[in-house]
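G., the chain you wanted modeled:
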Amino acid sequence: MATVRMRDTQDARAVELDAEVRFFRGLGNAQRLRILETLFEGEKNVGQIANATGIPQSQVSAGLNCLKWCGFVASRPEGRSVYYRIADARVKQILALARAMVSRHAEQLYTCTTLTLEEGGPSVEATY
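Predicted structure as tokens:
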């Protein structure tokens, strides 16, 4: 009986871990991070985000779709446009914390061979 409960607990933790990995994958793309940074300035539509970031509109739309699905952004229609905003103020806090940690550990992050192998190459920028 204890083995069954332990297995159920392990299975539940595995599901939680998978959700946490997906959470970070949602943030693990340079374009999506740029979109979020633009939305920190306030609500914007796809065209405004594309102009502010230099990212093509189709890629902005794809990034917003992911960010919305993951709960990082919310949207509202207005006329023929859809406006996007940060869905949860904690997103800004998470990214501020990440920046602080990156600035402290940048050299280790850039030289981590494990991350480079997982990404399939030397640069995250290549994953637009």
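The chain has one domain: 2-126.

Shout if anything looks off.
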